[in-house]
Write a structure and sequence with these properties.
174 residues; alpha+beta; Nucleoside Triphosphate Pyrophosphohydrolase; globular
C-alpha cells in the first residue's frame, strides 16, 4: 500500500491500483553524481512497469507515515547497496507520464541528490536492478536524444526540465 490522494484526502492504496487509475501519489527520486558522472540504473526485467529501461539512481514510493528523506536513504540501500551518502533535498516536482501496460505515473515527487567524492561501493539488488553505470551528463543527454525509448519517461522529463535544480551543488532546499 502506498499513499494516494482520493477526493483531496491522502489514503492508503494498492500500488498497482494507483498506477492503473492514474491517482496522484507521493514519490521519492534519488540522483547521485560523482567524479565519473551521473549514476543511472537499468531496471530489472521483472519490474511491473518500464522493465529494462535506464533510470536515475533509484526511485520509490514512501511507506505510510515514512519521512521522505528516510525513504530516499532506505531505497538507495535496498536497490543499490549504497549507505552513508549525504542526500540533499532538491525540491518537489509533479509529473504525469504513461508508463505502458495501462499504467500512468502521476507523482508528486520529493527529489534528493547525493554527490560522491570517490567511487561508491555498490551491491545492486538483481530483482530491482539489472545494471548500473556512470555517465557524463552531456553523454546521457545525447543518448536520450538519440534513443529516448531506452530511458524511463521520468528520467527524460527530469533531465529536460529540472536538471539544473536537481544536479546543482549548494545548500539543501527545504
Amino acid at each position: 500500500m502506498i499513499p494516494a490522494w482520493i477526493n483531496g484526502e491522502l489514503v492508503p492504496v494498492d500500488k498497482l491500483a494507483a498506477h492503473r487509475q492514474a491517482l496522484r501519489h507521493p514519490a521519492v527520486f534519488v540522483f547521485v553524481a560523482g567524479p565519473q558522472g551521473i549514476l543511472i540504473q537499468r531496471r530489472a526485467l521483472a519490474k511491473y512497469h518500464t522493465p529494462g529501461l535506464w533510470a536515475n539512481a533509484c526511485c520509490t514510493h514512501p511507506m505510510w507515515g515514512e519521512a521522505t528523506a528516510d525513504c530516499a536513504r532506505r531505497r538507495l540501500a535496498e536497490e543499490l547497496g549504497i549507505g552513508g551518502l549525504a542526500l540533499r533535498h532538491r525540491g518537489q516536482v509533479e509529473y504525469r507520464a504513461d508508463v505502458g501496460g495501462g499504467m500512468v505515473e502521476h507523482e508528486l515527487v520529493e527529489v534528493f541528490a547525493g554527490r560522491a567524492a570517490v567511487a561508491l561501493p555498490m551491491a545492486p539488488d538483481r530483482a530491482e536492478v539489472m545494471a548500473v553505470r556512470w555517465i557524463a551528463l552531456p553523454d546521457l543527454l545525447a543518448e536520450i536524444a538519440a534513443a529516448s525509448e531506452r530511458f524511463t519517461p521520468w528520467l527524460r522529463i527530469y533531465l529536460a526540465h529540472h536538471a539544473t535544480q536537481i544536479l546543482r551543488e549548494g545548500p539543501e532546499q527545504g
